[in-house]
């Protein structure tokens, strides 16, 4: 195997695992591999183009004499043109394993895609991962360089497990972040305000609904960067809830119900509902990281964020019936809803009878309940309230 000293190995592994945490570090990792193998290009193909969809592009990160060297970019070529398809997973191969030198030299793929970038000698491996499918790794040299030999193959095979782990960690983190984003959007679509605070009540993050509530200053507000209530008695209770949440973070809280309170609003509107829940710290990192808690706020008089399109599909309503149902779920009377929609009261009553017939309810209160408890708000697009 080619010589790889301890410092080189440590630097390369550090770069690979840094890249698993942040895509910006792939450039460093691939550049080190390029230098190690005396290559002109090193490429990771993360997603192949869909041959059935002309608009679908593949995804790759590559280093070398390229415009976007080191960046994760889309690339427009059809993988059925390359002779390197359908290879056994995790087996290092070169172009010499697939064809004679003459066949490779005359290959349309080499002439069309490789010659313009002085790519001639190719060493490749299709890396299988448990959660990311197959990812393609390619190392190339110009025609003037020596071909890849047994020592190159052996070194590539030696590094393969580390490259695989790095790619799989990156995929798992991306998936976890995507799931977190979906849950966060779902919370927002249900009109639940969320505020992330530290143990002193300082606000670390907030979603758009929380921002709207706090900016109104009606019950909850921001004072010196801290979450506070409008009235001292409520503020003392909020402080107690926050303190209790962080104390719970240091002991077993399985089965314990999060603390909750109602917050009086100076406007006289129905009180805000508030729940404070600690974010458990990982058992593997005791004493590390910033303790935090999540504050969930629900405005009982806030307008429904139900999607018109989803509500229509759920209940089989017409656009006019859907619009009336949403106005009623926002707390308006039939007369107020008719006025808001600029329709006659008799028309509104006719719509309501049709809604009752289609939904199977008999009272307006039941209609409001099924709308508020349906998945209609989850079909709302990502937008501010």
TrEMBL record:
Keywords: DNA-binding. This is DNA-binding transcriptional regulator, CsgD family. The lineage of its organism: Bacteria, Pseudomonadati, Pseudomonadota, Gammaproteobacteria, Oceanospirillales. It comes from Marinobacterium stanieri. Residues 314-371 form the HTH luxR-type domain. The keyword Zinc does not apply. One of its GO terms (biological process) is regulation of DNA-templated transcription. InterPro entries: Sig_transdc_resp-reg_C-effctor (IPR016032), Tscrpt_reg_LuxR_C (IPR000792), WH-like_DNA-bd_sf (IPR036388). GO terms for molecular function: DNA binding. It comes from the Bacteria.
């Amino acid at each position: 195997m080619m010589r790889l000293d301890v410092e080189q190995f440590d630097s390369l592994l550090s770069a690979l695992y840094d890249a698993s945490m942040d895509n910006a570090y792939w450039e460093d990792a691939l550049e080190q591999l390029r230098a190690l193998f005396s290559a002109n290009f090193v490429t990771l193909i993360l997603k192949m183009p869909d041959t059935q969809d002309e608009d679908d592009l593949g995804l790759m990160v590559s280093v070398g004499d390229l415009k976007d060297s080191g960046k994760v970019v889309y690339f427009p070529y059809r993988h059925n043109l390359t002779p390197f398809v359908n290879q056994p997973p995790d087996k290092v191969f070169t172009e010499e394993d697939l064809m004679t030198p003459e066949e490779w030299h005359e290959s349309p793929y080499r002439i069309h895609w490789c010659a313009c970038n002085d790519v001639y000698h190719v060493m490749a491996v299709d890396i299988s991962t448990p959660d990311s499918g197959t990812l393609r790794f390619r190392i190339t040299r110009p025609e003037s360089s020596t071909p890849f030999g047994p020592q190159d193959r052996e070194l590539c095979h030696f590094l393969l497990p580390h490259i695989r782990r790095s790619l799989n960690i990156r995929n798992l983190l991306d998936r976890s972040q995507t799931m977190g984003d979906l849950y966060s959007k779902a919370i927002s679509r249900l009109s639940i305000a969320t505020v992330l605070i530290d143990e002193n009540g300082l606000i670390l993050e907030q979603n758009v609904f929380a921002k709207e509530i706090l900016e109104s200053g009606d019950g909850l507000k921001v004072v010196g960067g801290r979450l506070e209530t409008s009235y001292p008695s409520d503020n003392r209770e909020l402080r107690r809830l926050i303190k209790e949440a962080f104390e719970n973070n240091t002991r077993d809280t399985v089965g314990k119900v999060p603390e909750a309170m109602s917050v009086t609003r100076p406007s006289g509107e129905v009180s805000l509902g508030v729940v404070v829940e600690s974010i458990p710290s990982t058992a593997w990192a005791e004493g590390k990281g910033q303790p935090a808690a999540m504050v969930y706020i629900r405005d009982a008089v806030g307008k429904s964020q139900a999607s018109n399109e989803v509500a229509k599909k759920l209940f089989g309503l017409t656009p006019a019936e859907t619009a009336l149902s949403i106005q009623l779920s926002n707390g308006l009377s039939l007369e107020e809803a008719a006025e808001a929609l600029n329709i006659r009261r008799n028309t509104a009553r006719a719509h309501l009878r049709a809604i009752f017939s289609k939904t199977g309810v008999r009272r307006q209160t039941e209609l409001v309940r099924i709308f508020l408890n349906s998945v209609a708000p989850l079909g709302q697009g990502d937008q501010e309230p």
